Amino acid sequence: MNRENYCRLIALSLVSVLLAACVGTSPRSPVNPVEATPVAVTVMTFNVQNLFDGNDDPGKDDKAYLPIAAKQNPAHIDACAEIEVASWRDECLNLDWNSAAIEHKLTVLADTIRQANGGLGADVIALQEVENLGILERLRSNYLADLGYEPAILLEGADLRGIDVAFLSKLPLAGPPVLHPLTLAQFPDRERDTRGVLQADFQLPNGAILTGFSVHFPAPFHPTEMRVAAFTHLTGLLQSLPDDRPVFAGGDFNTTSTEDAEKHMLDTYARPHWTLAHDIGCEDCKGSHYYSRDDSWSFLDMILLAGKRGGNTTAQFRADSVEIANRNPAQVSKYGTPERYRSAERSGVSDHWPMLATIEVAQKQ
Predict the structure, then answer these.
(1) For residues 341 and 303, what is the distance between their CA atoms, to the nearest angstrom?
(2) Strand (E) positions, 97-196?
(3) 345: buried, middle or exposed (CB in 10 Å: 19+, 13-18, 0-12)?
(4) What is the DSSP letter of 32?
(5) Could you give the dihedral angle defined by the CA atoms of residues 171, 289, 88 and 215, in that order, rounded to the nearest 10 degrees?
(6) Close Cβ partners of 186 (under 8 Å, ≥ 6 residues apart)
(7) Dihedrals φ, ψ of 14, to 5°?
(8) Chain Cα centroid distance, residue 158
């Protein structure tokens, strides 16, 4: 063998050894997925207290929220006279829900919404007590136009008064919204006094989908079993979604602190499935609603999160982000409680204070 062939053989041998060392005979250790920087989504829930458009909607009992000029006829007066609750009867007869009142109401709602994100508004707002898509679009287009909200999300429900749940969102929809009606087998005659659960699936910049539910549970004067049915309905909707889907629910759950203390509602029907925002933040918050008759505060308005359900997508509340949004002076009465809207005096905003929380959604890559 000459010198040139010898050197070539040595070189080939070295290459073979190096290749064998790189490939090896044992399987490579799996690479752990890396969790990317989370996407932060600020969520507000806001019961806006009777946002009506001033027009009489057929099939809905909205006769209290009409201009006074439309109430001066025997048919309207006779219909109001049949209302048993005196304050509701007086409202039906004498409330002047005219264009000036509506404009003022929309203005104070917009001022309240702008508290979030340094004046930019929350990324997603779950709303309750909105009459229809038209009045919500008016709020979005005329009073919040500079904040970048997508077209409003509202599907008409069966509530007799005509109040619906809705969303305003800066995030695009990943699919059509769905309204899931609440069925009450025990109380079929009361179903017209309930709202369904509005589901909207939002597309996040990192490719994940965040599902939101806007809810408005049966009022506290209804039997507890109706709110139990509403919680069960919501849990069923959660469990129907993919395991790796982060999900939040925002709204007026109408579960008073008294009922919760007596019936353990949240421990039984909420906490086993959800993280409650005010459980991990908002330590100094009294609640979102105040009942003067028994001097009690309640978190009627809550944001719930099911964030760690398996898969590569996780979500969690940022604890320091949870707050009651009540920095608009018009929201607060002289007693330090929510100042309900009074159209005649052009005062107040809503008898509920909104809740705010930031959800951080991350995907492992």
Answers:
(1) 23
(2) 124-130, 153-154, 164-169, 178-180
(3) exposed
(4) P
(5) 30
(6) 225, 226, 229
(7) -65, -40
(8) 19
Give me the residue label for tokens 């679009």: 137
Alpha carbon distance 358, 122 (integer Å): 9
Two tokens, residue 319: 């604890």
Compute the distance between CA of residue 234 and CA of residue 116 in angstroms, rounded to an integer: 27
**pLDDT tens digits for range 87-116:** 999 999 999 999 999 999 999 999 999 999
Rounded to whole angstroms, how far apart are CA atoms 64 and 62?
6
Cα(184)–Cα(229) distance, integer angstroms: 7
pTM of the entire structure?
A: 0.89
The answer to whether the Cα torsion of 226, 232, 237, 238 is positive or negative is positive
Domains of the chain: 41-363 (3.60.10.10)
DSSP secondary structure letter of residue 338: B
Q: How far is CA 301 from CA 7, 322, 351, in A?
A: 81, 13, 11
Task: Please report the sign of the dihedral spanned by the C-alpha atoms of residue 114, residue 116, residue 122, residue 126.
Answer: negative
Report yes or no: 290 and 336 within 8 Å, Cβ to Cβ.
no
**Residues linked to residue 153 through DSSP beta bridges, in sequence order:** 167
Indicate the pLDDT class of residue 137, thresholds 50, 70 and 90.
very high
